[in-house]
Task: structure prediction
Amino acid sequence: MKIFIDTADLGEIKEAMSLGILDGVTTNPSLVAKTGKPFEACIKDILEVVPGDVSVEVVGTDHDTMVKEGKKYAAWGDNVVIKVPIIQEGLKAIKTLSQEGIKVNVTLCFSPLQALLAAKAGASYISPFVGRLDDIGRDGMELIQEIVDIYGNYAYDTEVLVASIRNPMHVVSAALMGADVCTIPFKVIGQLLKHPLTDKGLAAFLADWEKANKG
Result:
């Protein structure tokens, strides 16, 4: 399973890359706004250091505007993936962009039927938002299983990119279900490493080392 980081913060991206586990980056307008940088400068800074796929989101809501934005952003780097919302005009844009060889990450997915339509339109990635479903009392990971099963039934090439991840258990469940990608906030990436028995064991080893080397 590939691991992406869900951020536009260059420091977080570089730290995640130093761990040797980062395969790509997903951004959105809200994450870019948090950096305080102009949109284009922020994305280009990320593209300079990240060799894997970097998702860049359009803000238009009609086909022509989304395609125009998508082509502009795609010209910034070969690894740019255009994020398009799963709306009617978005489906048209997915088809147009994908037919022109531009990778598309379909965002704001909350149902298996939306995922099916995105795959049929040519999406490279589908991004179901599990945390936001959890917030309204739904089990977001059930949606991941449904999409994985549907895509498996028909051998779609669209990769299932689990988004809106809130905790390590989302990542575990996604891996067990066979999702292709998890895009994870920096804070949660740090939590993936943590286990109390690891910390306890390391403390014991170091204490024993100190005892053995006293004097």
In short: Strands lie at 2-6, 24-26, 53-57, 80-85, 104-109, 125-128, 159-162, 181-184. DSSP finds eleven helices and eight strands in the chain. Residues 196-212 form the longest helix (17 residues).
